[in-house]
Amino acid sequence: MGNIIQCCQTLSNYFKFKDAAAQGEAERSPLLSSDDSECESQSLPEDLEDDLLSIISTGITNPALEPEHFLFPDIILSSNLGGDVTLVEPMVCLLVSEEEEGVRTLEPGDEAQEWRNRWRNREFSEVETQTEVETHIGMGVQTQTESQEEDPEKREEEDDNETALPQVEEEETEIKQTLFLVDRLFLAAPHVKAPPCQTEESHEDDGQQQSDADKRKVSISDVVDLQEPDFTVRIQPPASESFELQVSGKMVVAELHQVLMEHEVTCHLTSFSLKLGGTALDSQSELRSIQGIQDGTLFKVVEDSYTVRDARLHLRHVRDLLKSLDPADAYNGVNCSSLSYLTLYTRGKDSDSVGTRRASEKESVDCSPPEYLLPGCKERPLTPLQPLRDDWKPLQCLRVLTMSSWNPPPGNRKMHGDLMYLNVVTMEDKELNITSSTRGFYLNQSTAFNFNPKPAVPKILCHSLVELLSQVSPAFRKTFSALQKKRVQQHPYERIAAPFQVFTWIARYGDHTLDCVRAEETHTSHMGQDENTAGQSRDWNEELQRCRELPRNSLQERLQRERSLFKANSDFVAAATRGAVAVIDGGNTAAHAAAVCDLRGAQAYASVDIEGLHTLGTAVVDYRGIRVIAQSIVPGILEKNQEQESVVYGSNDYGKTVFTHPRFLELLDKTSKPLRIQRHQVLDHNNSPVELCSGIETKGILGNDGRPYILDLLRTFPPDLNFQLSQTEERGEVPEECQSFGYPRRHHHSLASLRPELIDAFVQHRYELYLKMVSQGLVQREEEDKASEQSEESVCEPRTGDTSRASAEMEHQTRTGIMKACEAVGSVSDSCFDIRFNPDVCSPGVRFSPECVQEVQRQRRLLWDAAAFLLSNQIPAVLKDCLDHTAVPMDGATLTSVLHQRGVNVRYLGTLLRELDRGEERGRLSHIQRISISEVIIRSAKHIFRTYLQDVEPATFSAAEPTEEEPRESSCHVERKRLGQTDPHESMDDVIEKHGLQRISLLREMAIKTGIQVQLREYVFEARHKPVFGEEDVVNMFPVVKHIKPTASDATRLVQHAQVAVQQGLLKEGCELISQALTLFSSVCGVLHEDVCMCLRLLGRICYILGEYADALSHQEKVAITSERIQGIDHPQTIQDYIFLALYCFAGGQLSISLQLLYRARYLTLLMCGEDHPQVSMLDSMLGLVLHGLMEHELSLKFLQNALNLTSKYHGAMSLKHAQSHHLLATVFESKGDFRSSLQHEKEAYLIYRSQVGENHDSTKESSDYLKRLTQQAVVLQKAINHIYSDTPSACIQPPKFATPSLSSILQQLNLTCGIILIPLSAKEVADLRTELKEKAKITVEDLEKTT
């Protein structure tokens, strides 16, 4: 880990790479990013580019940054090659003030509120650093981080009402303060890619791209315009009292319509219009554009007549209302419903929000956890995963609501307005036949065997079905009213439909009930059709392409375009999933790989988003062992006699015939630069050279609509030569690094390609080498020039002609140096840095002209260099990330994410395991070994299971899936083969026992990857004579879907700017930018989206730092619910969000809620990866601290002792993290009165501090003082005990003082455990550091300017 001195040296030395000494390792949760999304990195502003160059300086020292000012010298930052700064510690806050002695804590109340107000109004100065991390912004789930321990706060007795964060005492003179915040959450910017080519020929293109970028530049005024304040309108429903509703001026009338359909008063209405002053409002107009609208404007709800479509929508809406508390849809994975249990822990019986409940510091609650949550327990029950909720108890309003057998209405009744007929059985067992007409709903006189459509007596006509049923059934009226009260008490995020369906791998076995809507949807095919409009099919390709062709000049136009594209893509994925489930086609191994490669290529081209270039809507669906690729249809392609005739670019027969087209060349040339594809020539069937800007298998088709389409993008990224072994392979060209790892190897298909993350890392690595070579050449020439000048001065004065010749010679030498550097790093240009790859150098059937032989060989060498870079740099980097806890995978998905962030494919997992076994620190990576072996087993079993399932009859699915032993043992054989093991007698049980795997975790992983849903019950895996699973245990099978993920480009750029601002200490500006990005993301994607979740997570963290706990709780509660809804209730990201919500709850005084959230997080962690994991050490430390605050000392000691053991294993016995664990145990033993044990643990902490940071460090001194105080108390206690047992009278002995923990001190320790570090620095010291960096940067900038 880099200490703070190394941090400054990193900022000052661009080319010096120095790994930090592992004195104590930071701990961090896994970075969870979607590996499919691609983000185009933005161009930095000029001032930020200057700040980036400020890294290039040398030798900065600052007294304020000496180790004695910090608890640990191994926090803050660590350096990467090239000087880009990567955060190792999750959060560091530098509280900067001119007077350090002014720091103190305040009690909650007016003073604390005044301090928060001062924070809101404070100006934040810049700290000029630019950072880079290995993740992309729009990838889904940004995770929060686990922390390195930091300075133990002064152990003084404080009042229980003190707050945790340091407060700055008001002085007579004004004190300027700055908060410098660095957090892994704020360092999720995309890779800073190598700069574009700077040749003279490229200046014009770059200028054109710059002008296009200027056109798309986000206008802050436009975003602020989107964030205009809400206003209040009044809604007047028919036959009801009016009510107030808060709306936004940007809301369109159609959105207000949807809001009213969810409102408690008007939820039963679906077919209505809104009128203002007698004028009906246009559904697509914005409220602010309506003439005469103002605060308090009255809108009247006017009932409209029904059509067949409206009647069906109304029936579906009534069904949704009646089932709104039933989790059946979430269990069955329909209607975009998903599970959420957060409010079960954050809301009490009064259903108040977590942010509004009254704070109670020492609540009288039962703090004892269930037995299975205690440290050391091996029991892993499944039923607590989905606890029963009182608010989910079914409230049955009707016994039956179904379509009548008399449907459809006869012709004569259609003439009277009949639309459809319904059958209803009320709770009073009264059978009703209802007619749905254009005017509303009424009872008819039909029976089960007699059709009589005449209205029943008394004649009751109601516009909504709910109104009619309320009049004829008192039980319905009473129950529906109670259901409505419970429904509106739910958190809004629990009711909103997710954009994509989330499936749960385990579910309770529920009773099957009557459902008319479900029955109708089952018998009606919706493949390619609008599910709400019978008979109207949707042209998915036309819809998607029209969305892409929408104008994109202004912010409003881009928002509308991206919103339409997101909605169309979401609907397409849903339709593709339904179609794949209904129509399953065959597949093989190569087809499975080709589908994923094709989707990855489609995502890449969609991210580049070149105007005029069209890609197909694409989704990949795995269902019941079959992989289906669903794509929209190119207009006219099915009308051609032969598909070959429609291909005007690329090849359709593996290179036998090759075509090119100027229109496609022009469009694809624009994508070649961001995708790093080299423009190249191949030979066609006539041996004529054909120019391409993509892989040869990429096909260009001109549709009947005139649009140019590209498809078959499976070779978008360069091949991985490590898995391209051929019979004619020249062994001499294989690098030694690859040979040492046993590569190249034969793969089961030829589509193995390098990941885009690896390409970015490799290009960045080569760019740093390029800069280093050019810089060294400049320095060498400057030294030679100085030497020649000195020799010339000693001889004679230089002439004017000699000076010009010297200048020309220097320029020639500079260009020569650049050319040599370009050739050395493999640049396609000899005048600037520009690395690109030829995707066809290894494609079968591709032929090159003799003139291109050298270029092809150079491209193969470049690909081999990239393959060697993966083995020699990226795989060790993954292990280093796991070793220093920069990444802490918890399951197979997070491990895959960690590998992908470094550009390592999962097929290298065996190589990773072998490297792990060779390492000296393999004991500290035992959790990585377990997860990796589990992933190998599960993936092997998935491939075998997929093949096996294709031959199983559908009638025997449930019997075949859980009880089949052949795939289980075969996967063990495949797993041994992948790991290089040859023991044929080793069974799966032996492997599980040998590596300490957890069977319940394997079940979870297998179910998630294959789409199996099992019944929620307790499984006895140790049973030898009884099957673990029965036929009824397989509840369902779900499709596993992968698709393109569009997002909001302007919002992404705003978040990138916000992250840069926060990294520079501009916390206020960063918060404003994140709020603006949140508005844009919500406008495009809706509120239940990973990007919206990311923005809320950032805002919650900022609010917490500023002491605004209520706002932090509100944001984080939304984050946790969203993670449950879109990621899953047991996803690692959900666990992280629970943990930080628990922290915020504790800070807000809600100790019992905090404890319950931590218990839930610990249970989910145990279920996922077991107790032997570094994540559990952080959880147990937090649980011990919270229980300490609740005076539950015995329970606290159990969790803290387990945290101590895990810390020793995964951080080292002499790590500073271990010292903090000893100190926490010492404080609990002190409160308990066990001074001997307290002294023992604090002595251990003192020895670690003295060994790691020295005698003079503040933490060592504080530990020493604490030891003295403990010794004095122990002496006093011993004297008191001796006096009690002594018969001799003596003077009164003063009783010992037993320390009681203050909530503020506990919160400080919780902050340390979670990675929040407050460090005081004076403004003068920061200003001096900034000035010194700028001075050093000027010199280096001048040197770099000479190179161009």
Automatic annotation (TrEMBL):
Keywords: Cytoplasm. The keyword Cytoplasm applies. The keyword Cytoplasm applies. GO terms for molecular function: mRNA binding. Residues 469-724 form the Clu domain. Residues 968-988 have a biased composition (Basic and acidic residues). Residues 126-172, 194-221, 782-808, 957-988 are annotated as: Disordered. One of its GO terms (biological process) is intracellular distribution of mitochondria. Residues 147-172 have a biased composition (Acidic residues). One of its GO terms (cellular component) is cytoplasm. Pfam families: CLU (PF13236), CLU_N (PF15044), eIF3_p135 (PF12807), TPR_12 (PF13424). This is Clustered mitochondria protein like. It comes from Dissostichus eleginoides (Patagonian toothfish).
